[in-house]
Amino acid sequence: MRLPANALGASTLTPLAHGALNHCFGCGLENPSGLRLKFFTAEDGSIVCPLRLARRFAGPPGHAHGGIIATLLDEAMSKANRARSVTAMTRQMSVEYLRPVPLGARLTLTARHLSAHGRSHHCEAQLADAAGQVLATATALFIAIDPERFRRAAED
Questions:
Q1: In whole angstroms, what is the distance from residue 80 CA to residue 104 CA?
Q2: Which of 31-35, 48-52, 114-118 has the lowest mean pLDDT?
Q3: CATH number listed for the domain at residues 7-155
Q4: Torsions phi, psi of 143, nearest 5?
Q5: pLDDT value at position 2?
Q6: How far is Cα 123 from Cα 113, in angstroms, rounded to an integer?
């Protein structure tokens, strides 16, 4: 995987609009328990998210819980689909935890769409520290669904 390690300085970033699902654990600004991530699209089409993880996301002392790291990577890859106007659900994801992820530190989450075949969409993501050291990576298979399915569920 070769995503830009310091994507924040690599290009102009455009905010990625949020959908109607504003209670999402990853990006929902109205979810007080969530991560409240803000995503951007880089000129090359990749997804970028600067972040700092609060202490409430702890696993080992001073470091992020592995489930939160997986959630970050999954959320970024879902935005790589959204940037292509694809609504998709994660079917399979593989995570490599390379180094402990420190709480409170400046981090950069990046993702990109790799390929599409029918309803199948393949993406990759990485989480890096401020020095560009990659801390975790992931690849995933997403299956596209009809966005109307979410609209109906939100109305119930």
A1: 25
A2: 31-35
A3: 3.10.129.10
A4: -115, 120
A5: 44
A6: 4
First to last CA, the chain: 40
Which two tokens mark 137?
């990576």
φ and ψ at residue 69, rounded to 5 degrees: -60, -45
Residue 15 — very low, low, confident or very high, per pLDDT cuts 50/70/90? confident
> Is the Cβ–Cβ distance between 80 and 112 less than 8 Å?
yes
Query: What is the chain's percent helix, strand, coil content, to nearest 5?
Result: 20, 35, 45
Question: Which residue type, as a one-letter code, is found at position 141?
Answer: L
C-alpha 54/C-alpha 57 separation (Å) is 6
Query: Token pair of 17, please?
Result: 């609009």
In this structure, what token pair is assigned to residue 94?
Answer: 């593989």
CA 24 to CA 156: how far, in whole Å?
Answer: 16
Mean pLDDT across 76-83: 95
Q: Is residue 102 exposed (0-12), middle (13-18) or buried (19+ Cβ within 10 Å)?
A: middle
Query: Which pTM was predicted?
Result: 0.88
Taking residue 124's Cβ as centre, other Cβ atoms within 10 Å add up to 22
